[in-house]
Amino acid sequence: MKMIRRRWMAAFGLTLMAAACGADDTIGQGEEAAPIKRAPTPQNEFTPVELEETIDNLVAEINKGSIEPMQMTVVLKTLGGFFAPIATGANRAMGELGVTGNVVGSFADTDDQQKKMELQSRQIEQTVMEGAEGLGISPFGDGNAAAIDKAVAEGIPVVTLDTDLATSARSIYVGTIGEPAGITAGKTLSALLPPGPGTVVIHGSLDPTWVDGLQRTQGAQGVLEKAGYTVLVRQVTWVYEGEADDVEWMKTQIETAEPPVVGLMGLFSVSYWCALAAEAADRLDLPVVAFDFDPKTVEFMRQGRIRATHVQRQYYEGYLVPYILYGIKTIGLEATQAILAPQLLKGGRFDLGLDVVPGNKVDDYNAFLDSIGANQ
C-alpha cells in the first residue's frame, strides 16, 4: 500500500521542501510485492518514443528480480521555475516505484556560489545520515564533489542531473548534453537562413569554467561556420543589468557587422533577449531561434518573432533518476548501464535529447507539457 507524506525541513540556514513518496515496507507472509507498473504516457508528436522505450526496458528488467524497499533523495538547486518539472517527474517515479523518497530543493537567499555549494554539501551529508540508499543531485559546482565521493564511499550510488560533476564518483549523469544540443540548435537556425555569406549572432557562453555552456555554444558555432557563416558570440551576462548590456551589444552587431547579420540564436533561458535586440535594431525580419520555454520566449513565439525554441526535457530528467537509482540497487550498475546504452554516451552521460518546438506549435507543446504535469 503506497503512502504519500509531505514535510518541511529547516537546516544549515536553508529552507527545504521535501515531497516524499513511500511504500509500506511490511509485506505479509506469503505475500509478494507487486511488480512496478508505470503510469501510461500520453502519446503525441512530442512524446520521446526512444526514451520511453529505454525506460520500459529498464522497468521490465527490474521486474524480473525481487522488488525491494529503498530510501532515496533527489537534491535539486530549487523546486521552482526550471526545476519544477524535474521535481514532478522525480515524485511520480518514486510513487510508481513504491520507494520512500524525498525531493529536496533549496530556497537559500544568496547569490554566493561558494556558499550554495557548502550548504548543498551539508544537505547531502544530512540525507546520508537519514539513511538514503541512493542520491540524485543537481550540484552547484566542483565544491560538492567531496560530499558526493563520501556518499559513494559509503556504498550509496549517486546520479547527477541538470549539471554534471564528472570529477566526482557519481555513477551516471542525466541531462542535456552540451555539444549535441548546440548542434541541434545550429541546424534549426541554418534551415531558416539565406545562403551565405552572412553573420550570425549567438547569445551563448565562452566561459571555460562552465563546460556545458561552452560546449553548447561551440556545437552551434561549428554547424554555422561549416555552413559558411561568420559567427559572433556574446557572452551571456547572468546579472540583473545583463539584459540591457547584452541587447545593446547584439543591436550594435546587427547594425554594423560585415557581412550583415542574417540571424540570431540564444542558447539559454534568456534567449528571448535576441528578439529584443532585433526589435531594437528595427530588424524584425531576422530569424531568431531560442532555448528553453520561458514565458517571454513563448510570448515572442506567438508573435512570430522567435521562429523556434529548443526545450530540455526536465520532466524526464527527474523521472529517470529514481528509476536509475533503483536499477543500480536491484540489478546492478553494469546491467543498468547496458539498458541505458541507446542514450548513454562516453563517461556515463545519459543524453535526454531536446524537443524542437516550431513557433506554430506552441499550443500543441503546452498541451503536451500539461498532459505530463511538466509546465513550469
Please give a structural write-up.
Helix 5 runs parallel beside helix 6 and helix 7 (242-256) packs across helix 8. This protein folds into two domains: 2-176 and 313-354, Response regulator (Rossmann fold); 178-311, Response regulator (Rossmann fold). 40% of the residues lie in helices and 22% in strands. It contains twelve helices and 15 strands.
Task: Fill in the keyword field for this structure.
12 helices, six-stranded mixed β-sheet, alpha/beta, 376 residues, nine-stranded mixed β-sheet, Rossmann fold, 2 domains, disordered N terminus
Q: What proportion of the residues form beta strands (DSSP E)?
A: 15-25%
Mean pLDDT: 89
* Number of E-type strands: 15
**Compute the gyration radius: what is it?**
22 Å
CATH architecture of the largest domain: 3-Layer(aba) Sandwich
CA-based shape: globular
The CATH C-level class name of the largest domain: Alpha Beta
Helix and strand sequence: EEHEHEHEHEEHEHEHEHEHEHHEEEH
